């Protein structure tokens, strides 16, 4: 694979574009906002979404979707709620057989669809892969050591993608469990909000460890109900990403939860942010998906009740702590 297209000029799209350049690929980054295109092409920075990082001058940005789609593989890095629209706009330019690599983490709120289903509906001619794991964009952009799951149903194509993107410090591990990788990436954002709330509320480290562990159980239950494998959720795209996101103030989901826990209003927190906090949008979709599949997800439901249902933090916490005692395990 010689040329990689990247759709989405946010922090993660830019970091992945940089990684693909380091792996020796030609890269074209499509960004929606003209000032991002201009910033990347003339000043070799993305000051809006990835400040403080010097980009490779050979990294080219474009506002033309056709140019980014004219590649050997295309990374889809628009936020989850906008990914379907991006694919619809890409469809007329997509050559049959070019792989679409899903890099967004979320579940579509309007349809309750995994990203894989949204992409397949809009780009039926594209083989699909998923790239997901514990990967703060700024650390990847700085070249710090990172491991990630690359899930692809076609092992030969998966290996080509690993070779196209992998470097000594960006290490994709191949899997064939697309569902597990997507559910892990989507649900951990919701759980990270819960962990941030616990920290902001001063409920202690024991409580955070309990939430991470029982959160892992509930995201594994959902993944299995959707056809994913439990071992995937014990890997980079499940436990790995949950540990990272649910315990670091670098995480937007965790820091949003922290601010909620301190008593700030959701609208005020979101109003100060230019970047996307996926768990806010996926919380309702996760709970909807859990209801449709008959899976119990009390922590995600508590986050949804606070974010979308107007429940107070104290009520949500009391409800979680009033649940009946049960056996450990899934
Ligand atoms: N940041 C990170 O560390 C990581 C992020 N991810 C995932 O990657 C995805 C993208 O996140 P990230 O790059 O951080 O985003 P950012 O918050 O850095 O940037 C926001 C992005 O949203 C795009 N955007 C805003 N509104 C729209 C819209 N109406 N239609 C299409 N695009 C829109 C912007 O595109 P434009 O610039 O073109 O305007 C920009 O790419 C998310 O699903 C996130 O969970 C995954 C791993 C790590
Ligand atoms: O997905 C991420 C790290 O793997 C980024 O998490 P946040 O969106 O919470 O910052």
Question: Can you describe what's shown?
Answer:
This protein is an alpha/beta fold. The chain has two domains: 3-176, 3-Layer(aba) Sandwich (Rossmann fold); 179-321, N-(1-d-carboxylethyl)-l-norvaline Dehydrogenase, domain 2 (Orthogonal Bundle). The protein has helices at residues 11-22, 34-43, 65-69, 80-90, 115-122, 137-141, 155-165, 178-200, 205-225, 230-233, 236-245, 252-261, 266-271, 278-293, 298-307, 313-321; strands at residues 3-7, 26-30, 60-62, 73-76, 100-102, 128-132, 146-152, 170-175. Strand 1, helix 1 and strand 2 (26-30) form a beta-alpha-beta unit. The model has no long low-confidence stretch (mean pLDDT 98). The structure holds NADPH dihydro-nicotinamide-adenine-dinucleotide phosphate and 1,3-dihydroxyacetonephosphate. 1,3-dihydroxyacetonephosphate binds next to helix 8, helix 11 and helix 12.
